[in-house]
Amino acid sequence: MQRELFNLLGENQPPVVIQSGSNFKEKMLSTSKPSPWSFVEFKANRFVTLRHWVKGSKELIGDEPKESAYSKFNQHLSIPSFTKEEYESFMNETVNQDFLENEKNLNDSHANERVDENKNNWPFEEIIYLFKLCEKYDLRWFLIFDRYNYNESRTLEDLKEKFYHICRNYFKVSNPSNPLLSSLNFSAEKEVERKKYLQRLLSRSAAEIAEEEALIVESKKFEMAAKRTLAERESLLRLLDSPHSDQTITQYLTSQGMSQLYNTLLTDKTRKRKHDPNIPENPWMKQQQQFAQHRQLQQMGVKKSDVKESSSPKKTKRQRQEIQTALKRKSESAYAEQLLRDFNSDERKALGVITHGEKLSPGVYLRSTKLSTFKPALQNKILAILQELSLPSRPVMPSHDIVERQEELLKKINTLIDLKKHVDKYEFGKSITK
């Protein structure tokens, strides 16, 4: 404690209590005995035996190694197994079935090519070798292809096609209602074509990718234009909906009949169709009203300027108040200019006399607070440009002239940023069209 603060305590000094404490943890009091742990063997699989710690004594666990607790998660696929006689029997049966189907469907060219020589020239030992690899690696075909080492060289597509072909024939004979039959169809030719297409897709250059993206953008524009054209065509057909053909059209040949038809189409609510709020006015009725109005005004001797004013819509109360306020400000500004007509611009500047045409807010304020503000993104760009020009964001001495110049500079910078945005947009569109 500092000496000055200690002197402020006076005579009533509080006693200082020192509590003695130990920094060591208290001894754990437990009446139960610790459980024994044993380092025993367990079977990871049928080939490997490992050791791990197990809770319990060796007398309770025993000396024989037990199965691992995670052996239940070690699941494998069930691959069909068969002997040579079974293989020849179900292959011959499926060949005969395919032959009968080919006789029934002579026009099916693909069915005539099912019995291929490449599918029958595999020896039985190689087939058993393939199925053992599939069982060992759980149909991980890239591993199977990597470990495949037989007399003849096979491709990955040949291995998959042979495996699925034999499995399909096996289930056709043993279990024809098996739902897996539909998923055992594999075509090596289609797989090769798919890989070639994928290789061509991945080997594209940057220019080809940019061209493809530009074509996609253009196609989307064409689709949007087509949808817009269809919508306009539907609205036009809906507008030009004619009356029933069993009625005569003589009543619609006159101007009165045309206006009656137009009103009927607009007020017809019995037809279930979407109402279009952008229905154009009837040109015949509009022209007729203008002609009648012009004829009436000519009879009353109204001038052409008065005709334009009468044709314009009536102003609301708020608009009339704004017009009156603007006229009042204009008259006050003209009155102030008349009072200061004997002073030239230098004398006005020296005296600090300024005429304001706009309405001023009451109270005292700083001129710098009246500078124009923009949106945050645009404001950051303007501040960056001012920083490049070594100018502050707000003037140091905000006099009237400096504030006006600052306002003009901000407006010009805003205009330049807007022009740059349009130029960039035009150049981007030009690059897409190329």
Automatic annotation (TrEMBL):
Residues 303-312 have a biased composition (Basic and acidic residues). It comes from the Eukaryota. Component of the SWR1 complex which mediates the ATP-dependent exchange of histone H2A for the H2A variant HZT1 leading to transcriptional regulation of selected genes by chromatin remodeling. Component of the NuA4 histone acetyltransferase complex which is involved in transcriptional activation of selected genes principally by acetylation of nucleosomal histone H4 and H2A. The NuA4 complex is also involved in DNA repair. The keyword Cell inner membrane does not apply. The lineage of its organism: Eukaryota, Fungi, Dikarya, Ascomycota, Saccharomycotina. This is SWR1-complex protein 4. Belongs to the SWC4 family. InterPro entries: DAMP1_SANT-like, Homeodomain-like_sf, SANT/Myb, Swc4/Dmap1.
